[in-house]
Write a structure and sequence with these properties.
mainly alpha, 2 strands, binds Phenylacetyl coenzyme A
Length: 311
């Protein structure tokens, strides 16, 4: 019966066994995973927009080629993740529909505008940096297809982070205006990057169950702390200042203390009221509609092929 199945399921999780698509799993596990993996996928795909905005204005052919490759990788990450979600018995159409209606979220950070070339640096360094801290932990998530997707994504993401850091490093070696541009960008992206880890553990509705099922392996606050600790030294190394007067080393904790996040801003952005929410979704809708003929052509090709096979 259900109880025995559930106990056996939890025993496997506790034993560090991976759960695979055809294995029995509680409905709530399936639902929670579909939620998290699809929102992760939407983040990758919507995350292409702030950087896509700068491809035509990259300062050199080399930077353009690198940025183009990075944005393309993000499309790839989205696809691995949609595929992982589909193994749980939901269709791509349903997932995209949830993005369009606002039923499914995507990372709040992508609702902030990319205003200068330096933002390509800050996004790579901070946004990919935060994403990696979270995704390294998710390599050990209990659902097999998600965990395996994370391994590959992390490899690509670490290149993304370095390319962002390199952009900022180059600007910081430049003239006064370039250094200012880099600092301004870090000032705007620092706090939203901390918000990527989600609400405090005490306010995180899904964390308890997700930790028991090992969908999440480390808590929102733990991962956020890790990110702060690693970023302070990286900022110092190239002469950037992190915009937080409360940031200081705490000898007792062995970590950096930092100021309080503006949670009102966080909740307002995830409720749809950030600078770019409406544009981001409208742009995705338009691209999706304009690509309808490709999906139709694929379907037509596929049905011709299967007709030929059965003939
Ligand atoms: N933005 O109970 P919790 C990338 C929502 S990486 C928006 O703590 P959970 C790479 C949350 O969904 C970025 N919404 O939730 C890239 C929930 O609402 P719901 C993507 C947020 O799931 C880099 C509610 O608040 N990475 O894109 C956010 O246990 C550069 C309550 O929160 C992932 O998605 C937020 N920041 O923990 C691409 C990683 N935080 O669903 C381009 C996988 C929370 O009930 C350029 N996901 N919410 O309506 C996770 O690890 C988790 O889902 C968390 C949230 C940690 C994000």
């Amino acid at each position: 019966d259900e109880k025995t199945l559930e106990a056996e399921f939890q025993r496997r999780i506790d034993n560090e066994e991976k759960i695979e698509p055809k294995d029995w799993m509680p409905q709530a596990y399936r639902k929670n995973l579909i939620r998290q993996i699809s929102q992760h996928a939407h983040s990758e795909v919507i995350g292409m927009q702030p950087e896509g905005n700068w491809i035509t204005r990259a300062p050199s052919l080399h930077r353009k080629a690198v940025l183009l490759a990075k944005v393309q990788d993000e499309a790839g990450h989205g696809l691995y993740l949609y595929s992982a979600a589909e193994t749980l018995g939901i269709s791509r159409e349903e997932l995209i529909d949830a993005l369009h209606t606002g039923a499914a979220k995507y990372a709040s950070i992508f609702n902030y505008p990319s205003l200068s070339w330096a933002d390509m640096g800050a996004i790579g360094w901070l946004v990919d940096g935060a994403a990696i801290v979270n995704q390294v932990s998710l390599q050990r998530t209990s659902y097999g297809p998600y965990a395996r997707g994370m391994v590959r994504i992390c490899k690509e993401e670490s290149f993304h982070q370095r390319q962002g850091y390199h952009i900022l490093m180059t600007l910081m070696e430049g003239d006064e205006r370039q250094r200012k541009m880099a600092q301004d960008s870090v000032n705007r992206f620092w706090w939203p990057s901390l918000m990527m880890f989600g609400p405090h553990d005490s306010d995180s509705q899904h964390s308890g169950q997700s930790m028991t099922w090992k969908i999440k392996r480390q808590s929102n606050d733990e991962l956020r702390q890790k990110f702060v600790d690693q970023s302070v030294e990286q900022a110092e190394a190239i002469g950037l200042t992190l915009p937080d007067p409360d940031l200081r080393w705490n000898e007792d904790r062995g970590h950096y203390d930092f100021g309080e996040i503006d949670w009102e801003e966080f909740y307002s952005v995830i409720a749809g009221n950030g600078h770019c929410n409406r544009d981001r979704v409208a742009h995705h809708r338009r691209a999706h509609d304009e690509g309808a003929w490709v999906r139709e052509a694929l379907d037509a090709y596929e049905s011709k092929r299967s007709a030929a096979r059965t003939a």
